[in-house]
Amino acid sequence: MFFNYGSGIAHVGIYVGSGKMINAQNNGVKYDNISSGYWKRYIAGYGRVVNF
């Protein structure tokens, strides 16, 4: 997942299902809900790795 705060992609996370992602922040690695709250408003897009 790619996040944009207004000046281009500034953060990435890994979608793990059920509306959750893993992302690294200054205070460690977190599971966060992407369906509501802080992250929802900044989603810029997502991609999928195939045949990995």
Query: What is the straight-line distance between the termini?
Result: 17 Å
Order of helices and strands: EEEEEE
| Number of separate structural domains | 1
Overall mean pLDDT stands at 91
Helical content (DSSP H or I, runs of 4+): under 10%
Radius of gyration: 11 Å
- Give the biggest beta sheet: 3 strands, antiparallel
Which regions have little confidence, pLDDT < 50, spanning 5+ residues? Answer: none
For the biggest β-sheet, the strand order reads 2-1-6
Given the structure, what is the number of helices? Answer: 0
| SS elements, strand count | 6
Shape type:
globular
Return the structural class. Answer: mainly beta
Strand content: over 45%
Provide a brief overview of the structure.
The chain is mostly beta strands and 52 residues long. It has strands at residues 2-4, 9-12, 14-17, 20-25, 28-33, 43-45. The protein has one domain.
Summarize the structure in words.
The strands form two sheets. This protein has a three-stranded antiparallel beta sheet with strand order 2-1-6, with no helix packed on it. It has a three-stranded antiparallel beta sheet with strand order 3-4-5, with no helix packed on it. The chain contains no helices and six strands. Helix content is 0%, strand content 50%. It has strands spanning 2-4, 9-12, 14-17, 20-25, 28-33, 43-45. The protein is an all-beta fold. It has one domain (2-45). The radius of gyration is 11 Å and the shape is globular. It starts with a strand and ends in a 7-residue tail after the last strand.
